[in-house]
């Protein structure tokens, strides 16, 4: 039996970026002709695409874990790694995408609409891209960043022009089968329809869609029966058609009470902000099964009262097709008027954009841990990404990271937060990089003169200043002068003479 799924949670893992390459070009008579390491490829994105051919989320219910390909690492001879392929996931039109916090990311209401829900990781730069006029032969490359990993929720809300609502076994499935080419399951027991059915109706020059919503009962807006599961499929409909069973044999039921119960459930159902409440939309009433003599008499009896309430009433029979033509023309009129009153849709895709504030800082520094175990946490997209891109087995790469952080102003932020030399600093959240902070005076990565792959600052050695070299020179000169004076004093005292060696010979 086919299963209808309109809610699902996807577990997504986008592709990781490839690492950059460290390579030096070698030519004849030029053993070191310069860096030629290529960049790593970007990881593949995961994209949702609104596809008219897809009607259910069943495939994702059975296979919720999806991942895209990783980017390939860079290679020598300036060859960049291949980027991972984008993974496209088709979803039905009308799918609403939520993040883990429940916020709406996108509303897939147009065919072909695309939204990136899991961006792939960024490929790392090779040493050729890191070379500058001062850093001519970098001995390091940047690592690729990991792709986005997390969950997104998909919720399908059927897009139709008219919604058929009513009690179970009121004849909604029979009606949609009679006025369209849809072939829903029809039986004479309640809750035969377990999934919303869509049918396309042509009336004159107007073409519109009709949705058969599973039967509602009293308390549906509170979760009873199937109503709460499928009432959201009514949200996007322009008009409502109340299908009322005039031939029911259930005691205590009549067309007026059935309509009042359905109206109460529709009134209590909350629609999203900005949408018209369900009861404020155009509504028509279809009194079904008038091919039964008793039902025809009952329909004639209640028509006047329903019309006094402001409803347009249509006695119909799906078995004999009585009144169906008049009903479809009336629905077409309502739909055409609703389309004319609908505001023009924007041309761009309706994707939620969250721009950054103009005065937003690239990072934050906060002291944590109390007085006894104080440490300083640095949070920000750039510092955290730079840490991920750094190869901590390479001292020159560590020095490059220190220079980047200093240029961004992280050290100034640590000073202002109260950090001193030797303070514990964490870059990132839980599991971030932890290190003891040693402030630098200037950004000198471009002036490093140590061997490739090393950074003199990491090893603890430092280049002496001009004053230190001058003092060291004067100390050596003073030591030599003192030694000569001591020798002269010994010679004057007669301890030795210049001709001692000659006498011995």
TrEMBL record:
It is an enzyme of class 3 (hydrolase). InterPro entries: G_OBG, GTP-bd, GTP-bd_Obg/CgtA, GTP-bd_prot_GTP1/OBG_C_sf, GTP1-OBG_CS, GTP1_OBG_dom, GTP1_OBG_dom_sf, OBG_GTPase. Gene3D superfamilies: GTP-binding protein OBG, C-terminal domain, GTP1/OBG domain, P-loop containing nucleotide triphosphate hydrolases. It is found in: Cytoplasm. It comes from the Bacteria. GTP binds at residues 166-173, 191-195, 212-215, 288-291, 317-319. Monomer. It holds the Pfam family DUF1967. SUPFAM superfamilies: Obg GTP-binding protein C-terminal domain, Obg GTP-binding protein N-terminal domain, P-loop containing nucleoside triphosphate hydrolases. Keywords: Cytoplasm, GTP-binding, Hydrolase, Magnesium, Metal-binding, Nucleotide-binding. Residues 160-336 form the OBG-type G domain. An essential GTPase which binds GTP, GDP and possibly (p)ppGpp with moderate affinity, with high nucleotide exchange rates and a fairly low GTP hydrolysis rate. Plays a role in control of the cell cycle, stress response, ribosome biogenesis and in those bacteria that undergo differentiation, in morphogenesis control. This is GTPase Obg. Residues 2-159 form the Obg domain. Belongs to the TRAFAC class OBG-HflX-like GTPase superfamily. OBG GTPase family.
């Amino acid at each position: 039996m086919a299963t209808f799924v309109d809610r699902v949670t996807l577990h997504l893992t986008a592709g990781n970026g490839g690492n950059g390459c460290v390579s030096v070009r070698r030519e004849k008579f030029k053993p070191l002709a310069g860096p030629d390491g290529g960049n790593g490829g970007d990881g593949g994105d995961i994209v949702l695409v609104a596809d008219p051919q897809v009607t259910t989320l069943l495939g994702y219910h059975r296979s919720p874990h999806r991942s895209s390909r990783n980017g390939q690492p860079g290679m020598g001879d300036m060859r960049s790694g291949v980027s991972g392929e984008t993974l496209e996931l088709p979803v039905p039109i009308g799918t609403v995408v939520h993040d883990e916090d429940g916020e709406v990311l996108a509303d897939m209401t147009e065919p072909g609409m695309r939204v990136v829900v899991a961006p792939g990781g960024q490929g790392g730069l090779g040493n050729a891209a890191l070379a500058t006029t001062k850093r001519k032969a970098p001995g390091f490359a940047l690592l690729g960043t990991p792709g986005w990993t997390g969950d997104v929720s998909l919720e399908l809300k059927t897009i139709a022009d008219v919604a058929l609502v009513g009690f179970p076994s009121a004849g909604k499935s029979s009606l949609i089968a009679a006025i369209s080419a849809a072939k829903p399951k029809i039986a004479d027991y309640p809750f035969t329809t377990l999934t919303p059915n869509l049918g396309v109706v042509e009336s004159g020059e107007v073409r519109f869609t009709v949705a058969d919503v599973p039967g509602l009962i009293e308390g549906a807006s509170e979760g009873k029966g199937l109503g709460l599961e499928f009432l959201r499929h009514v949200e996007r409909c322009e008009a409502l058609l109340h299908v009322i069973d005039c031939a029911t044999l259930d005691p205590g039921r009549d067309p007026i009470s059935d309509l009042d119960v359905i109206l109460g459930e529709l009134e209590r159902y909350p629609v999203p902000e900005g949408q018209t409440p369900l009861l404020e939309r155009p509504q028509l009433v279809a009194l079904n099964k008038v091919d039964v003599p008793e039902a025809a008499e009952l329909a004639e009896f209640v028509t006047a009262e329903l019309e006094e309430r402001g409803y347009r009433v249509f006695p119909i029979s799906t078995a004999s097709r009585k009144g169906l033509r008049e009903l479809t023309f009336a629905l077409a009129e309502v739909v055409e008027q609703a389309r004319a009153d609908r505001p023009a849709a924007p041309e761009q895709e309706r994707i939620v954009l969250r721009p950054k504030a103009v005065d937003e800082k690239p990072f934050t520094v906060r002291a944590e841990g109390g007085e006894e175990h104080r440490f300083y946490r640095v949070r920000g997209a750039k510092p955290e990404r730079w840490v991920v891109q750094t190869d901590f087995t390479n001292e020159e790469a560590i020095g490059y990271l220190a220079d980047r952080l200093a240029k961004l102003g992280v050290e100034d932020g640590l000073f202002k937060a109260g950090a001193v030399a030797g303070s514990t600093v964490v870059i990132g959240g839980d599991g971030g990089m932890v290190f003891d902070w040693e402030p630098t005076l200037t950004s000198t990565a471009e002036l490093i003169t140590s061997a490739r792959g090393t950074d003199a600052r990491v090893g603890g050695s430092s280049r002496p200043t001009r004053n230190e070299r001058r003092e060291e020179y004067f100390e050596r000169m003073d030591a030599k002068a003192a030694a000569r004076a001591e020798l002269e004093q010994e010679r004057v005292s007669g301890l030795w003479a210049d001709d001692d060696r000659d006498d011995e010979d």
